[in-house]
Write a structure and sequence with these properties.
single chain, alpha+beta, 10 helices
Length: 271
């Protein structure tokens, strides 16, 4: 009986010693967390998408609290989040207008042809870097869904050979734009509706051989615009959204019908 008592006492003493050691370790390694960091983290949307340039919302909150990142550094949260974080940090924080992704390609199965059948990993980078040019257009959407795979909100899908974006789901994180090996995806302010659905930098005749609706770099859009908002660069038209007032003249006059107005559904194609 005395042996049981002795064993019980020994176990109790060991437990107490371990408890004391844990308390001391907690005090030794305790890291004081800034209340501002906690509040900023609570204000962030929590997508952990990395669009801000940090590993996630925790890292972003820590950087803002330390003054290493701006209060309006979250592109997903937009103005409401920037304003809230600005109040926490005691600074004025004006956020840029929220943006969403748009795929600059109209090379659907009807508009362009297939040069070869690719057999391999269903990934755009694998197809492109493997040296397989599967479509007639060397600049168009490959259609294997690298952008789809990285989208955290399931906002992109491949439709009729081209990636399309669901505007209602897109949070503007830009991960799809970074992933696209041909640089076809652009982030556009949600208030802007004029878009150019082409990235082909070849000259007119070559473009038409590759795609029925490609930009032929005629420059009519430039001459029609009174706001210096559209220019032909590297044989393809591009909109300067800082200047664009969406007057629609370039849309109306484009002979290739590649400049479009999304008519109340700005930035992205309907998926």
């Amino acid at each position: 009986m005395s042996g049981i008592i002795i064993a019980t006492v020994i176990l109790a003493v060991i437990g107490i010693l371990i408890g004391i050691a844990l308390v001391k370790a907690g005090l030794l390694f305790h890291v004081e967390v800034d209340q501002k960091e906690i509040d900023v983290r609570a204000a962030l949307p929590g997508n952990n998408c990395g669009a801000c340039g940090y590993a996630g919302c925790d890292a972003m909150a820590a950087a803002i609290a330390k003054g290493e990142a701006p209060a309006n550094g979250c592109p997903v949260g937009g103005a409401p989040v920037a304003e809230k974080i600005g109040e926490i940090m005691g600074v004025d924080a004006e956020a840029e207008e929220k943006k969403a992704a748009f795929v600059r390609c109209n090379g659907t199965c009807e508009n362009t042809g297939v040069r070869a059948n690719y057999v391999g990993i269903k990934d755009c980078r694998s197809a492109l870097y493997g040296g397989v040019a599967v479509g007639d257009c060397d600049y168009g959407c490959l259609g294997y869904g690298s952008c789809v795979q990285v989208c955290p909100e399931d906002a992109i899908r491949i439709e009729n050979g081209v990636a399309v974006v669901n505007r209602d789901k897109c949070i503007g994180c830009g991960l799809c734009a970074k992933e696209c090996p041909r640089g076809l995806i652009e982030l556009v302010p949600i208030s802007k509706t004029t878009i150019v659905r082409c990235m082909n930098r070849d000259k007119g005749p070559a473009v038409r051989k590759a795609c029925k609706t490609g930009c032929i770099a005629c420059g009519i859009c430039e001459r029609q615009c009174e706001h210096d908002a559209i220019h032909v660069e590297n044989n393809v038209a591009h909109v300067n959204y800082d200047n664009c007032v969406m007057c629609g003249k370039c849309v109306e006059k484009c002979p290739a019908h590649i400049i479009m107005d999304l008519g109340g559904k700005p930035v992205v194609q309907e998926a």
